[in-house]
Model the fold of this input.
Amino acid sequence: MVHDRAHRAKGRSATLGSRATLLALAFSLVLVPGLVSAQPYPVAIEHKYGTLVLHERPRRVVTIGFSEQDPVLALGTVPVAIRYWFGPEAGWPWAKDRLGSAQPEVLHMPFGELDMERIASLRPDLIVATHSGINKEEYDILSRIAPTLAQSAAFPDFGMPWEEQTLFIGRALGKEQEAKGLIAQVEEAIADARRAHQQFGRATIAWISPAEGQGQYWAVGPNTPPMRFLAALGFRLPDQLAQVIGTRDSAPISAEQLHLADADVIIFQVDSDAEKEAFLGDPIFSRLAAVRQKRLVLFVGLDDPVYGALSYSTVLSLPYALEHLVPRLADALAGRGEPSH
Done:
């Protein structure tokens, strides 16, 4: 989970081919014909806190991380309940077709505040927690409620790549081959976008947002799914900023360090139009070359589905990001992004 201010409140020009191609990709993510798995059970999946063993296909899946519902839906299973992160409770546009008329219960449980009794009352036979940041104590309790799939031990919390998360969940749902097919489709679309925008491969990018406390910012790190997606498009984090963040999913930087984030493109999120104007008029922020040269991709509020698609960076949301975010990135890199104050 990216730890900008909004997420911590929850706890925590050129286009890609034709629009029709992207829409076809999005709809094809429901099913991949010809990829029907043979009998996949029993299955054993090693994760950060042990091994998940399932003897039959789960029927009551509860996702208690912040984005796992997307790969679960993409693989044809509607969760009994999902955990709220941010944005519209009715669901993001890339997931609505997969939900259909179903209405999973929405769990309002900020980071670090799992309601174990409520989760148990849902009678799950699989708990998916691959993007949840749960600790060992929480896992031990959850695994007594139902078999629990935690994230891989190979990655930091909230740092499991979308491909790995999709494959993990696909194996648990008995649909590993389907998962591989979906991953291949999205990877191909990302590669197409990179080929169509070769200028991305020569550019740096930073994603920052205001933090609590005047003059403080959060900078998103390279080990998060969104930044991995941007890297797959060709962008890279400025070297000095990457050193400050290290292996964390994000890190605070002061106003005095803000120059470290002065990349070829800056992604910036604020809560309101008034806050946007305040930052564009701020003497330190407005001095950044990316601000002066209109190389900002700026989001106001948390309900923008493009911002949501990037934040989630899942097998379902990334086709939406390719269609709607990539043109904005190209415009910003060309100096046609958000204007200075």
About this structure: The longest strand covers residues 205-210. Residues 3-37 have pLDDT under 50 and may be disordered.
